[in-house]
Amino acid sequence: YVADYGNDVIRVASPDGAVGTLAGSGTPGWADAAAKAAAFNDPWSMCVDADGLVYVADYGNSLIRRIDGQGNAIVWAGFIPGYPASSTAGPKSGYTDGPAIGAAFAAPAGICLDRRGFLYVADSKNHRIRKIY
User: Fold this and answer.
1) Helix (H) or strand (E) run with residue 22 in it
2) I want to staple 63 with a disulfide (CB 3.0 to 4.6 A). Which of 78, 79, 110, 127 is the partner?
3) Pairwise CA distance, residues 92 & 111, whole Å
4) What is the reported pLDDT for 87?
5) Residues 6+ apart with CB under 8 A from 66
6) SS3 at position 77
C-alpha cells in the first residue's frame, strides 16, 4: 500500500508488481465513499492493521481515514461540524482531545499501529504525537 500524496489516492501493489488504486478519486477534497469515489487531500502516510484495514493520515483534510478491503473510505478520527449528519460541512483543523470523531488534528503527517492495535498519529502542526484508542 502507498499513500500517493501528489495524486490524492491510496495505491495497492500486488505481489506480481501490478499497481492499482484502492481508494481515492484523484481530485483533492474529502468524501466518505466507496473506492474511487472517495476523496483525499494530500494523504501523507498510512498503515495496515492485522485485519487488512488501512488507516490514512489525510494531511490536507486534518483527518484520519479508514479504508476497508473493498476500498470504502470513512472518517475515523477528526473534526467535521455536524458529521455524520451533514455532508456539506468540511473538515476543520485544530487541537482537541476526546472521542476520535470530534478530536481535532492539524495536518497529520505520520501514522502507525502498535501491536495492541492503538493508532499513533504525528500531528505535525500541533507538534504532538497523538494516540487513538
Assistant:
1) strand 19-23
2) 78
3) 19
4) 60
5) 53, 54, 55, 56, 73, 74, 76
6) strand
CA distance between the termini of the chain? 23
Q: What residues form DSSP beta bridges with 33?
A: 73
User: For every residue of 23-66, which 3-state class applies, written as one string?
Assistant: ECCCCCCCECECHHHCECCCEEEEEECCCCCEEEEEHHHCEEEE
* Among the listed residues 90, 83, 9, the one whose alpha carbon sits nearest the alpha carbon of residue 1: 9
Distance of CA 27 to the CA centre of its chain: 15
Element (H, E) at 129: strand 128-132
CA angle 23, 122, 116 (to 5 degrees): 80
Average pLDDT along the chain, 133 residues, taken 10 residues at a time: 96 94 95 94 96 97 95 93 72 93 95 96 98 93
